[in-house]
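Collaborator request log, item 7. Partner lab (contact: R.S.) asked for a structural prediction of DUF2884 family protein to inform their binding assays.
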Amino acid sequence: MRLHRLLAAAALAVACAGLHAQDLSTVCHATSSYDLTVRPDQLIFDRAAPAPTRVVLGNGVLITDGQQVALNDEEQDRLALFQQDLRALMPRVKAVAQRGVDVTMQAVREESGSLNLDPDTRAELDNRLATDAADLHQRIAASQSTHDWRGDAANQYANRVIGDVAPLLASALGQQAVNAALSGDLQQAAELRDRASNLASGFQPRLQRRLQVLRPQIQALCPDIQRLSELQQGIRGSNGRWLNLLQIGQ
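Returned to partner:
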């Protein structure tokens, strides 16, 4: 029935904090080759290549690849504002992510409504989704690094949701199909398979349309992201190259 595709699409969207369809790159044309880790006294930007691969901002000091960069007063002021504005932006980005989790979980609930689940299965599904949503909300709130949502980390969150929900739905649908087959209603059994297949194949684009509701909230971030890009301009790392912690495209 390809049911795993439905749950995989949902879980991956959740794991990406609801920003898969309306991310900052699409809406604000903002990109960065760095991961960001926020500490009480520092902002740490890191990437595999090119140099500088590690940029540390904090307490009026700029360090790139282990070397402190000499800054004039104007540059120190701009980097202080950069740090202040970026820290202020983080709760707003998290708020979008939190809402994205809610939108995605609600989409799974509504999409599964077409599967004619029995009351017990429906109640258990709602319970598991609520538990997973609460966990993701907590993880988003506690997260201080974009590393938490990349690669294996994101896949772990996705697999957890899949592991919680997919067996439940598969069992319920399988039992419906068995009951239909045993009663001799092969057409109903085939319809169940088709229903689940159609739901799985169309879920991702429908979810992306639902996530359009996040667009105004993300657009409200764009002016502040643009300001961050402007504040970093003209400042070089220890290797003499522009920092380019954040890029704004067209």
